Amino acid sequence: MADLFVGASVRLIARPPYLKTADPMPMLRPPDLLAIAAEGMVVDRRPAGYWGVKFDRGIFLLESQYLEVITPQEEQTEVSG
Fold it and tell me: pTM for the full model?
């Protein structure tokens, strides 16, 4: 797996037990708010090993174990396929 970085396109590969919003006062949300394979963009790095990831349904704090980086080759294939 490629290393995560701010600005990376990522895909959700597993659901955490709950989703934590990236709001100033984070809230816990049910994990089925995001589908497996949902794609988003890393917007920031947070303490305790969390990444802020912007999905269509909002910005959530996730650990790297639940994410995989989408390589430019994959993005190219999805657009042309």
Answer: 0.85
